[in-house]
Amino acid sequence: MDTSAVNTSSVTVVGLGPMGRAMAGAYLDAGYRVTVWNRTASRADELVARGAVRADTVEQALAANEVVVLSLTDYAAMYAILEPAAAALEGRVLVNLSSDTPERAREGAAWAAKHGARHLTGGVQTPPSGIGTKEFDTFYSGPRDLFEQYEDVLRVITGTDYRGEDPGLAALYYQLQMDLFWTALTAWLHTLAVANANGISASAIRPLATEVLGGMGQFIDFYTPRIEAGEHVGDVERISMAVASLEHVVHTTRDSGVDPALPVAVLEAFRQGAAAGHEEDSLTWLIEVFGRRAAA
Ligand code: NDP
Q: In the chain, which end has fewer C-beta atoms inside a 10 angstrom radius, N or C?
């Protein structure tokens, strides 16, 4: 294979899960010369048929292009792949779109620097269907000059949302988003289990679910200034009311033959808020409950 091209109209993509395949495809669509490598080589077949170059080794994949997009399960996969080829990292720009913790992103950036590579952390905010569009953004963090130098290349994948120099920041914002995503979506799935147990279908509950979850923005808008002012005044709702309400949810769940562990966990947090003397305060006081429980 020809490894002579070192410029920004060509990229290497390492990791060809659903996300990496979509990214490599977006670069091909944008007219880039794309080199790909994946542990399971057959996942590159369709991309090769569309014009991508399959690198035979990780070293070749790194040598082919200055910009190397990593789309791996986590940072451990990056070390598994790149550690044995570390001598080929000198001068590369690693755009690491593998999700992991902020601390692992910081360690990864330091590890890359030790081998002469520069590192941008990325946190992609869309499934594969949104790759190659500008409808969604990817969080980035790392050296600002590096981000600005390669922003046009990054914008082939999605829109960009630069969060700062600390390599952990993009991973942090990604995890904050995932915290909301998993807990909110699991709440919906739990509600569906209770609905189904009572003969109510997913489509029958759909208007209610979209209205309740879609309306969360107004609660966030209402409470945010109060939280920032340190006010947890129980003038529109109180923790004691939430405890009673959640007990009804837990009993309804149990009576429906559904595992109540999820609402029980929420109820326990509210009960601890009440036990700490905050029955008359707002539900926002739970921020303190969560923080104090971790510190205990
Ligand atoms: P997958 O886990 O399906 O694929 C990741 C890739 O990692 C595969 O190419 C796989 O290789 C490789 N890999 C994993 N472990 C190793 C290892 N030990 N050694 C070598 N290669 C390894 O992930 P996705 O493509 O779905 O996602 C990629 C990243 O993007 C993840 O971090 C994910 O959290 C994040 N993300 C995913 C979204 C989604 O909707 N899928 C949305 C937003 C972010 P092989 O093919 O050989 O198994």
A: C
Report CA torsion sign: 33, 39, 41, 45. Answer: negative
Q: How far is the CA of 43 from the centre of ligand 1 (A)?
A: 12
pLDDT digits (tens, 9 = 90+) for 120-166: 999 999 999 999 998 999 999 999 999 999 999 999 999 999 999 99
Asked if 15 and 122 sit in the same domain, the reply is yes
d(CA 199, CA 70): 46
Atom number in ligand 1 closest to CA 100: 32
Q: How remote is the CA of residue 276 from the centroid of ligand 1, in Å?
A: 43
Could you tell me if the CB of 99 is within 6 A of ligand 1? Answer: yes
Distance 41 CA to ligand 1 centre (A): 14
The widest CA-to-CA distance across the chain, in whole angstroms, is: 70
Confidence of residue 295 (pLDDT cuts 50, 70, 90): confident
pLDDT digits (tens, 9 = 90+) for 213-222: 999 999 999 9
1-14 confidence digits (pLDDT tens): 444 444 459 999 99
Q: Are 73 and 98 contacting, i.e. CB atoms less than 8 angstroms apart?
A: yes
Parent domain of 193:
172-295
Residue 22 class from Cβ within 10 Å (0-12 exposed, 13-18 middle, 19+ buried)?
buried
Ligand 1 atom, smallest distance to 20 CA: 25
**Residue 77 falls inside a structural domain:** yes
Q: How far is the CA of 90 from the centre of ligand 1 (A)?
A: 24
Task: Select from 165, 191, 215 the last residue of a domain.
Answer: 165
Size of the chain, expressed as the number of residues it contains: 296
Q: What mean pLDDT value characterizes the chain?
A: 95
